Amino acid sequence: MNQPYYMAYEDRYRRVFEAGIELWGHSPDDEILVRTLTEWVEKNDLAGKTVAEFACGEGAAGVILSKLGVRYRGFDIAPSAVKKAGERLRDFPYARVEQLDMVKETAGLPETFDAALDCMGFHMLLTDTDRDAYLKNVHDVLKPGAPMLFFRESYRENAYTGVVESFEHWKEITGDDYTTPQLRTNPDGKEIRIPCVPARARNREGYTTELERAGFAVENFTGMDQSSAIQYSVSIYARKR
Ligand SMILES: C[S@@+](CC[C@H](N)C(=O)[O-])C[C@H]1O[C@@H](n2cnc3c(N)ncnc32)[C@H](O)[C@@H]1O
To answer: Closest ligand 1 atom, CA of 33?
Structure first.
């Protein structure tokens, strides 16, 4: 049931790369991402430590973290993104990227990682069951007290607060689908007609409740400026309790 929906990304990456567009998601030069990760790594003393990134896409954050001296492990469900991220990280000996369904699979043994990052990945999970399963998987593989940063996750003050049971249910609530082509633009301003894969916005209480339920403490909740990727978003600094 999940697989066709989450694999919509694979279709999107293929169409983008076939159109000769080298980069769709975050760029390794995204100034706000660079600044945020630099501060996060310094504050949590993560240089030389092992950091997992879930829904890593094409590896932009992997490049930034590797330059900061982190031992990077990226995970994504879409094989084309994993391949592209691997190519982008080729020159960093401590970086690895693997295919993984973060909802259904674990990224390693319990308490493997010193920290975790999620850039616009968590908000892609629509159902409550999948969101809880993902957070549990991440929580299990983090060491006690490990920080986790959720960067640029979709935010709405008036976000839907009920339970979402399935993709079809989300479609009934919002009208969103992942098949209708729309004119979209990448970070370099290149245009292509491809579907928009829906994301689920939360408000502050919604994010805090589900993170705390999964065993994280929320330490900071920061509103983000509008970017080419998303209009209303937040970054959440959490820590495994
Ligand atoms: C909005 S993109 C963000 C990509 C990248 N983090 C960035 O900021 O450029 C969402 C990513 O989530 C990945 N994804 C969606 N469902 C997933 C799942 N169940 N497990 C792992 N990755 C998933 C997609 O393949 C896609 O790369």
So the answer is: 8
